[in-house]
Amino acid sequence: MISAIVLIHADVHRIPETAQAVADISGVAEVYSCAGDVDLIAKIKVRDHAEIADVVTGRINRLPGVTHTATHIAFRSYSSSEVEGGFSIGEE
Known about the structure:
The chain is of the alpha+beta class.
């Protein structure tokens, strides 16, 4: 699986509707409404890079209310247990 994070700028008057429309797209695992320099953050999980293009440029960018996106493809994911385990290697 390939993971990507999509930072979404949206029309402020349509954020809830836009967030739900993004969440309803196949390949979108989660959508967060947030404060800061972006309005929404979507977590994408798909089988290959071509699907990322389809989800982002073919679907998300075409939604009413989406004004701009920036996509970041993940190389590796870490969980808190993996990070903690890495720091404790060799300790007794």
